[in-house]
Amino acid sequence: MPARPRIVIVGASIGGLTAAETLRQEGFDGDVILIGDERHRPYNRPPLSKQIVVGDWEPEHAGIRSEAEIGSLGIELRTSCTAEALDAAGRVLHTSQGDIAFDELIIATGTEPRRHPLVPSALTLRTMDDALAMRDRLRAARRVTVIGPGILGSEIASAARKFGADAQLIGRSGTLTFGGVGSLLSSRLAALHEEHGVELTLDAEIVGTRSDAGGTIIEFTGGTSAPADLVVAMIGGTPRTQWLASSTLTIDNGVVCDETGQAAPGISAVGDVAAWRDPYSSRPVRVEHQSNAIEQAIAVALRLVHDEPAARPVPLFWSELHGTRINAFGWFDPTLPLVSAPGVGDPDPTVLVSLDDTGRVHGAVGWNAPPRQFRAARAAVAESAATAPTMASHP
Amino acid sequence: MGVVVQRDACVGAGQCALVAPDVFDQDDDGIVIVLEPEVDGALLASATRAARLCPARAITVSA
Question: Within 10 A of B34 (CB to CB), how many other CB atoms are there?
Answer without folding.
Answer: 18
